[in-house]
Design brief:
Oligomer: single chain
Order of helices and strands: HEHHEHEHEHHEEEHHEEEEEEHEEEEEE
Number of strands: 19
Number of domains: 2
Structural class: alpha+beta
Strand content: 25-35%
Largest sheet: 11 strands, antiparallel
CATH architecture of the largest domain: Sandwich
Helix content: 25-40%
């Protein structure tokens, strides 16, 4: 009997090569996303991966692609901005936990706050290397009225400025200028009585800003690191409630607390940690989930999904729990 050694060798290679899924938003970062495709596929091939690649064409594509193909691959690499990453997480969370692929993130958006929270490198070659050969690290994700998100749900002052300002402009503005723009935005917000149910406590007040996050820094002005550490995989959110200021003195007190990170001594700022929080609003507001505006109605329930996904992080972060100190 003749034996086709070529077929045997080919089949062996196909069966032993790992499988990677590459999803790229080509429009992200002023069309810089397309520059990722060739070097990423080349690096994946060199690392022993058989790669399936897709580009997104419209909103929701990344959700569908991750949900439909993610379970068949060990590694899912996404290139895009925070919004694309949000869609990937929403898709991956539809997959049974044992089958969820590790996620490598190559940020290419104009705003990449999530990559900063993860401590990812800046250079493209280093990002690709981390996405392929980094350390798979479990982190929590949020569930907002049943919809998953990566790291930040918020409404009120600062929110629009954070996501409408490109990262380069943020760096150029500096913290104080950015803080000033955020404080000025309070003038455009009308008081809206809100009841917050958190850790068995019910609080009702008018808030200028609310955030429920899994990140050491929020919208460029709230830095939790100055007071304590944030663990991205502890099953808990950081919740910040900033009261609506009644006068210039209260505005100044809030601005001072934000600039120093001393939230404990500001009576208008309230920080909590929790695994679940509920908001009941007199009037519905626009929430932002990882930079995407959503209409949530009068009631919002936000839950922490512990150790929900695995993100590829730089090798120097070889820790089971991702801590920021």
């Amino acid at each position: 009997m003749d034996i086709d050694f070529y077929d045997i060798e080919t089949n062996f290679v196909r069966e032993t090569r790992r499988r990677a899924l590459l999803i790229v938003n080509p429009r992200s970062g002023n069309m810089r996303g397309v520059t990722v495709i060739a070097p990423a596929i080349e690096a994946l091939s060199a690392a022993g991966y058989e790669t399936t690649a897709f580009t997104t064409t419209c909103s929701g594509d990344a959700v569908r692609l991750a949900a439909d193909y993610g379970a068949d691959h060990e590694l899912l690499i996404v290139s895009g901005g925070d919004g694309t990453m949000n869609e990937i997480i929403r898709g991956v969370m539809t997959i049974d936990r044992p089958l969820r692929p590790a996620i490598g993130y190559i940020p290419m958006g104009s705003t990449n706050d999530f990559s900063v929270a993860l401590g990812l490198p800046k250079r493209l070659d280093q990002l690709i290397d981390t996405a392929i050969s980094g350390v798979p690290t479990e982190i929590d994700v949020g569930r907002f009225n049943g919809r998953h998100y990566a790291y930040l749900a918020s409404f009120g002052a600062f929110t629009d400025i954070s996501y409408s300002t490109p990262q380069e402009a943020k760096n150029a503005l500096g913290f104080l200028a950015y803080l000033g723009s955020g404080m000025n935005s309070i003038a455009n917000i009308k008081p809206n009585p809100t009841t917050v149910i958190i850790n068995g406590e019910m609080i009702t007040d008018d808030y200028a800003f609310v955030s429920v996050s899994n990140t050491p820094s929020v919208v460029g002005v709230i830095n939790y690191n100055k007071q304590s550490r944030v663990d991205l995989n502890d099953g808990l959110f950081e919740v910040m409630l900033i009261n609506y200021p009644e006068n210039a003195i209260e505005v100044g007190s809030i601005a001072h607390a934000l600039s120093t990170g001393d939230f404990k001594n500001c009576e208008f700022m309230h920080r909590f940690t929790c695994s679940e929080v509920k908001f009941i609003l007199d009037e519905p507001v626009d929430w932002m989930l990882d930079g995407e505006r959503v209409d949530a109605g009068h009631e919002v329930v936000i839950e922490n999904v512990h150790s929900a996904i695995r993100i590829m992080l730089p090798r120097e972060k070889k820790r089971r729990r991702l801590l920021f100190e």
